Amino acid sequence: MMKKVWKKAMAVTLAGSLVVLAGCGSKTTGQSAGTASGQTGETSGADSGKPTISVMVPQFYGTELKNDNSDEVIRRFEDYTGTHVEWRWEANDTYKEKFGLVLMDKENMPMIVTGNGELTANVVDAAKKGAFWDLTEYLKDSDSYPNLSKADPNVLKAVTVDGKIIALYRAREIGRYGFSYRTDWAEKVGITEEPKTVEDVYNMLYKFTYEDPDGNGKDDTYGLEMTKYVGPIDIIQTWFGTGNKWVEQDGKLVPVHQTKEYREALKWVKKLYDDGLIRKDWATVDSGTFGDAVKKGEAGAFIDVMDGAKRIWNYFIQNDVKSVVDPTKTATMTLVGPVNNTTLATSGFNGFYLITKAGAKTEDDVKKCLHFLDKMCDDEMLVLADYGLEGITYDKNDAGKIVMRNKLEVQQTPNVGLNSVVAYIPNLTAGNPTLEKLESTIAQDEAIARNKKVAVFNPALGYLANSSVNAEVGTDIEQIIDDARTQYICGQIDDAGFDAAAKQWLDRGGDRLIKEINELYQQDTAK
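Below the sequence we write its predicted structure tokens.
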């Protein structure tokens, strides 16, 4: 993928493709992809003697629970939970669209619907109309749900609508997001210290692009990997003091796109684009391939979750990718974390589980769903979902600790996809047995600890979940800014064009949203 060969042609095609970016997705379509029992030879929950629940989840690879030995994984989680699961997989690139459609399809609504990210406006609107079960009282039942009853009350606020807990969150580390890069590339271009400022990062990306970091004598590398997944831009913005979606200024909550820091960050990312430090077609690259460019030696820096950087490092180990400065050693990643002593915080969760009234029609159905989700948080299921099968994806050492084999890529493992139904409440990892950590995992944990101390939270998160205006217009107007940001970076619009988009955001309900969010903010005596 030589930059200079197709750079001009791609710039031409990009202009047309960005216009329809919001509706663009993977060619993979949503699919049932085989129910759990279908892969084990069973035909229904009734035949297996187990209660049946149905779950809709995003599909990232297309191989979820369909690999060699996946039938054994399915048998184990169904036997342990006493539950037969009917899976409904939907491609991640089009999941947001399918998620919205399924909320309107009461005749075919699964019992559990998985949401990405945080509560969206359409979820809040549906919740206000009574589409989901109120889980408040159930989560007080520690005898029936010993794991889920330990959910963090502060995080539960973000999935509470009109005083009702309408979802279970999927717990995540607060400090997951940050900056990482290929260590040997930095050594090759003469960088000996980790980047601390945005100037340091730019310098590294420039050298990774133009100073032949892989030493092959070809102009075939990029500084930063980017796809149409725009999470890296959200992280970069915090380096400029932008905040996380919303920011408190002079006693008021302000959407970050209205701040001068936001525009500074936008100009910086545009400079990366203009200077060729990211690929020109980034906005059309399938987000399912995110991470591949660093793995393949096409890009040197990665901005996303620290566990994503760890997986790249593990790929180098699995595939014996050699260091370009010392072929006797394997390539590694340096997991920096914060830049300018800051990074983006998660909300303490990423995604959530809604138990729908159209799918789970009775209280007994709700209990079946909660029983399954609770059991999936036990150590036995955490090990199965995250580490796979002993003797296939991991072994145990003399101390009884799990030692990963790391011979298979994530999408090839028998357990891939199972963690999509793990809430990780109250524990993010199994307590027994524990993992014998690789150097890459130790580096991940250290970076997460650094991030956690300086991570920037979204101060409006709880208010957005209870905003009627957000429920009405939030999803639509958010897309206006997302599209404008992409178009600005790629040179399709200038400052005036972005200002016009920001005005459109206000005119379509953003002004009312700001007013309501601040009313809720002022009324909150616990803030």
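The two ends are 51 Å apart (CA to CA).
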